[in-house]
Amino acid sequence: MRQQYAVRSLILVVGLALVGLAVIAQMIRIQNSEQAKIFLSQGDKYSGEFRMFYPERGEIYDRSGHLLAGNRTVYEVGVSLSEMRKPEALASILSVYLGLTYEEVHKQLTGSPEGWEYIVVQDYVGEETVAALQELMQQQWDADDDSLDGLGFKPHFQRSYPENALASNVLGFVTRDGRGYFGIEEKYNDLLAGNPVQVWVPSDPNKAMEIPRVSNGTTLVLTLNRDLQAQVESILDQALFEYGAENGAIIVMDPRNGDILAMATTPRLDLNNYTDYFSLYDNGSQYNRAIGMAYEAGSVVKILTMAAALDTGTVTPETTYIDTGSIEVGGITIWNWDRQPWGQQDMIGCLQHSLNVCLATLASKMGTQTFYGYMERFGLGHPTGIDLAGEAMGRLKVPGDTDWYPVDLGTNAFGQGVTVTPLQLMMAASAIANDGKMVTPHILYAMLRDGHQYNVPSQYAGAPIKAETAHTLSGMLAVSLEGESSKALVPGYRVAGKTGTAQIPTQLGYDQSQTNASFIGWGPADDPQFMVYVWLQKPSASIWGSQTAAPVFSQVAEQAVILLNIPPDLVRQQYGSR
Amino acid sequence: MQAQATQLIHAYKQAPWRIQRQYVGTFLLVVIGISMIAALYLQVTARAAATGREIQELRAEIITIQRLNADLETQLAKLTSSAEMQRRAVEMDYRPVKPGELDYVAVPGFVAPEPAILLAAKDAGFISLPLPSEYTQSLIEWLDDRIKSGGY
C-alpha cells in the first residue's frame, strides 16, 4: 500500500516538475522571441519621452541691479486633434480670442495632414488671453460641454524689456527664434541663451533623479548706470531738437577703469517691438552710432597730436610760435578754420583757438614716424575691443598706404582725413585723463551663473604717453576752456576738454555747410571720475561744436556729478585735506 | 557489541514525526524570511516610487515657480522703470535736483553697498545641497554598495 502511494507521489512530482519546467521554458521562449522584442520596444515608448529643455535666457541688469532685460511667460495655443470633438465650435471660439479669422482656424483644425496628432494654432499668446480661455474651458467643463476638448496651452518664455527703448542700442534684442541681435544680446548670445539639452524623461518615478538639471543662461550685470543712461538719453533727445541735429551719440565712461556708465544714441528702438528695426535703420552700423559709425571728428583729435608733441618734448605748454594763418605741408597749403593769422601763440592758445596751423606745425616737427607711431599707440584705426557687437574700426591712413599723401601728415594732425568712432576717441583720450594709461572700454561688470559671481576685471590697453604729459595736457585743456569761458564749463567743477567741428567729406570734397559737432571732456580735472563724449550730426542751429556739443557736455556732466555722487571741487578738496 | 551499538543508535535517533516537523519548521522559516524581505523590499520600493513621484511633482512646481518668479520680476521692473519712476515723481511734485542744492557729508570708512543682485548670487549656493544617498537608493542598491565597500 505504502509502495503504491510512493509511486503515485513520484509520478505526481515528476508530472508537476515537468509542467513547471514547461512553464519556465515557455517563459524563456516568449521572453526571447521576436514578438517580445516588439512588445518591449512598444513598452519603451511609454516608459518616458525625449524632451528638449530650453534654459531660461539670462537676465541683464544695470550696475545697481535694475532689470534691463528679463523674461515673461507666453503660451503656445494648440489643439490635440485626437481629443477634439467639435472643430467648428473650437474654431469659432479661438478666432474670437486669438484675433484670427474663423476660416483660418477652421482650416488648421480640419485640414491637417494625415497622422498629425497636434497642431499649433498660435504662439506667443499673452497670459491674459490664455487665462480667459482657461476660464471658459472650466465653465464648459462644468456644463458638460465638450466644445473646447483638445485645446491645450504650452507655456514658454519670451524676452521682455521693462525699460522699453532705454539703452536699446547697448542691449540689442532677441527675436522669436531665440537669437540675439546687436549689442549685448548678440555679443553674449551663447552665454545668455545657455545650452538647450535634449534628455530622456522617464515616466518611472524611481528614475526621477536621472533627469538632469538644466542650468539657466548666465545673468549679466552691466556697468551702465540706468538713471544716468535715462538722463543722458533725455539730454541727447533735447539737444537734437534744440540744435536741429539729425542724429547723435553721447557716451559717459569712467576713465579710471573703462566702465561705460551711459551710452546714448539715436534713433532708439522699443525693444519689445523689435520689428520696427527696419523702419528705423537703413543698416546695422546705425544701430549704435557710438561704436558702429566712424566719422571725421575734427579738432577733438588735436588733443592726441598735442599729447604726442608734449610727450616727445617737441613743445612745452609755454612754447610759442607765430601763427601766420597758413602752412604748407606736402606741397598743399593748410589754413586755420577762420583762414586768419593768430600771431604769437603758446600751446594753450593753440588748443584754445583750435588752430589747424599750430597742430600741422607740430606734426611736421615730429615727423611721420613719430606722429603716426603715437596715433597707432592711441589705438586709432583699431577697434577698441568693447564687448558689444557691431564695432567699427575707423581708418587711419599711414605712410605706405596707397591713398596716403604727405599732406595727410598735416591734415591728420587736426583731425581731417582720420575716421574714428566716438568710443575710439574716448579710449585714446582716457590716457590723458588716467595718468597716461589707456583703458579698454567695457560694458560687462559681472556674470552670475549657478550662484557664482564672476567679476570682469578692467584692462589697460597700454600707456601711450607719460603720466606727466597726461597731467600737463589735462591742465592745459582745463585752462583753455576757462580762458574762452566755454559753454562746456560746469559750475563748481573744473573740467578739461576740447571741442570739434568737422566738415563732412563727400564725393566732391568737404561740404562747407554741414558739420559734425563733437566735444570730449572729463572731470574733475585733478581726479577724473567721468569722461563724456558728445557727437551731434549736422546741427542746423549752429555748425560749431562750441555752440552745440559743448553745452550738451555741460548738461551731461551736471547730471553725472549728481548721480555718481561726486562732490564739488571745493568740498572734495576740503575733505581730502582732513 | 552489535546490540549495544544498535541500542545507542536507537537512543539518539529522532522520531520520524520530529524530523518531519523540523523540515516543515525550516521550510516555514525560509518562507517567513523571504516574505519579510519581500515585504520590506516592497515597502522600500513603494516609498521610493512615492518619493520619486513627489520629486517629479516638485520639479514641475519648481518650473512653474521659476516662471512665475520671472514674470513677477519683469512686472516689478516695469513698475519701477526709469520712465515710470519719473512720472510718479512728477505726480508727487518732485523735481530734479540741481548740483548746487546738494549737501555732501563725509562718512569715514563708508563703503557703498553692492547691488542686491550681486548679494543674492552669493547666497544662492545654499540651495544646491546634494541629496543624501539614503533618499535615492533602493534596498538592493544599498546592500550592493555595502557589499562592495566591505561593510563600511
What does this structure look like?
The complex is a heterodimer of chains A (578) and B (152). Chain A is α+β, with helices and mostly antiparallel strands. Helix content of chain A is 38%, strand content 23%. Chain A has 20 helices and 23 strands. In chain A, the strands form seven sheets. In chain A, strands 2, 3, 4, 5, 9, 19 and 20 form a seven-stranded mixed β-sheet that branches. In chain A, a hairpin with a 2-residue loop joins strand 21 and strand 22. The radius of gyration of chain A is 36 Å and the shape is elongated. The model of chain A has no long low-confidence stretch (mean pLDDT 91). With 152 residues, chain B is an all-alpha fold. In chain B, 68% of the residues lie in helices and 0% in strands. Chain B is built from five helices and no strands. Chain B has helices at 2-12, 16-79, 82-91, 116-123, 139-148. Chain B is rod-shaped. The two termini of chain B are 58 Å apart. In chain B, 5% of the residues are buried. Mean pLDDT of chain B is 83; it is low at 124-128. The chains are: A alpha+beta (578), B mainly alpha (152). Chains A and B meet through strand 3, strand 5, helix 9 and helix 19 of A and helix 2, helix 3 and helix 4 of B.
Summary keywords:
heterodimer; A: 578 residues; alpha+beta; seven-stranded mixed beta sheet; five-stranded antiparallel beta sheet; 23% strand; B: 152 residues; mainly alpha; 68% helix
Distance between the termini of chain B: 58 Å
Total strands of chain B: the figure is 0
Helix content of chain A: 25-40%
Total number of beta strands of chain A: 23
Helix content of chain B: 55-70%
Structural class designation of chain A: alpha+beta
Counting helices, strands and paired strands, the structural category of chain B is mainly alpha
Main sheet properties of chain A: 7 strands, mixed
